Amino acid sequence: ILIDSTKYKQPKLTLVGAGPGDPDLITVKGMKAIANADVVLYDALVDKKLLDYAKDDAVKLYVGKRGGMRSVKQDQINLLIVKYAYEYGHVVRLKGGDPFVFGRGHEEIEYADNFGLSTEIIPGITSAISVPALQGIPVTRRGISESFWVITGSTKSGKLSRDIELAAQSTATIVVLMGMKNLSEIVSIYKRIGISETPVGIIQNGSTSKEVTGFGTMDNILDVVSEKNIKSPAIIVIGKVVETHPELAEVLSEINHY
User: Fold this and answer.
1) Which of 57, 146, 166, 228 has the least CB density, counted as fewest CB within 10 Å?
2) 3-state helix, strand, coil in the chain (%, to 5)
3) Of residues 22, 178, 180, 218, which has the active-site annotation?
4) Which of 43, 98, 180, 218 is flagged as catalytic?
5) Is 178 a catalytic residue?
């Protein structure tokens, strides 16, 4: 990148977590950062209502990435951050959830640091905890689950994380992000281990008006997903805590009745 040092405008990058989807779930500090931005680079899972907080003359540019769809590559996003910071000043990188939970936020901070940008991180509410919570599902509960794993359902190579099999052998709650395309593989792991009765819930577009849910066990969750046409973006919650949801409690009651 060629930078004209005579045009410095105090270049700064602020990473802002937008929360799980509901625009009201952004932090006050995140909202203030958007209002102070000269440029907002925003992701696919960010509600565009948040852009209303930005100045009228602020540059607002979509740089979203979605699995299986044409999108702006990470290297291009990194370049845009630096370019706009030196051209306009304060760049807010607005990301769904929390920037450091599978959001590649640290990579962007590191890149910006290399070009002398001032940087700030404003955490967001991650969907891994908040979306189950909004359904009344705690990721931990005394006597049921002492810990939880948050695992990517799609690694850099596009494959399912090996940590799924390790986590499945524990009593921990497991939350899988970006895992819908590998759901059948997750089900296969549980069946192979012999714990296909494990409760599972899937929540699409959590915290938004487009939210869709499906609950069952590893034995029938693929049928539930097919019936309800549940797709990405969705999170997968696995473990005994899912039984706290009324919908699953009803399903299990019917199974036990027969």
Assistant:
1) 57
2) 40, 20, 40
3) 178
4) 43
5) yes
